Amino acid sequence: MTEIVFISLAVLLRVVSNPQGNVFQKQLTQQGSHPLWVNFLTYLLLATICLIGLIFLDAIELSKDFWIYSILGGIFGAVGNGLLVKALQKGDLSILGPINSYKSVIGLVFGIFLLGEIPNLWGIVGIFIIIYGSYLVLDTTEERFTLALLRNKEIQFRIGAMILTAVEAVFVKKVILASSPTIAFTSWSIFGAIFSFLLVLAFRINLRHELKHLTVNAVSKLLLLIVCIGMMQLSTNYVFKNMDVGYALSLFQLSIVVAVLLGYRIFQESNICKKLIGSTIMIIGSVLIILFHGYTK
């Protein structure tokens, strides 16, 4: 019973902290910061805190699998989160948040090949319900729910981010199994910082220009962003430790309603009622995957 309570609290913390972090990411890019720079600073500051914490931890022997999956997770996470911040720069939070519900679908697909998880009938039903809900949400865009929507750069970035972070979730789970949620968080932060810095170098971000945007207001938002992302990843790791990835990713989709409400409240985004209805339908699809065991081994 106690474990269920802790898992529920971790899911709630993740559901709230993730979209709130997206708000700060969007605000920082709107103030002129480059998305890849915001991504790098987030990882860097979290990694710095983790490195300080390592001083107080006893040294342990880590397996080869730990290092392999940490590196792979770092690559997929750095690129995926970089694309996410880029999508949030100009895209509506109330659109991009609900799109993330497809992550549970991707989780099921990749689970077939990487974790041996085979969708059953209810899993398939849940997938179709999620797709129908997304139709209502995406039908509020200028391109509506058509192939033309895929020409929208923000949608392309968000889909790319979703796919990469869904695969990253599998690697994070592997790292947790090879160590612990806390050590996995440390490796996630450090390797994320390394690979996000390589992205900054690869795209030749003007660091001097970016430093000019670090005003008092920007720094305060950055610190709040770090708190949100830190809580999001720590709670994610705890849930992954105690739950299969496919179920966890489905539960995390409860955050899409929070994303829609924040988009309306903070950025005055439109068509809120239709987006909420679509988001609720997508959540129902995710819940079906969970309650009726959307996959079997």
From TrEMBL:
Pfam families: EamA. It is found in: Membrane. Its main location: membrane. It is a multi-pass membrane protein. Keywords: Membrane, Transmembrane, Transmembrane helix. Signal peptide: none annotated. Residues 23-138, 157-290 form the EamA domain. GO terms for cellular component: membrane. The keyword Transmembrane applies. The keyword Protein biosynthesis does not apply. InterPro entries: AA-Vitamin_Transporters (IPR050638), EamA_dom (IPR000620), EmrE-like (IPR037185). The chain crosses the membrane at residues 41-59, 66-85, 105-138, 159-177, 183-202, 214-233, 245-264, 276-295. SUPFAM superfamilies: Multidrug resistance efflux transporter EmrE. Belongs to the EamA transporter family. This is Uncharacterized membrane protein. It comes from Algoriphagus locisalis. The lineage of its organism: Bacteria, Pseudomonadati, Bacteroidota, Cytophagia, Cytophagales.
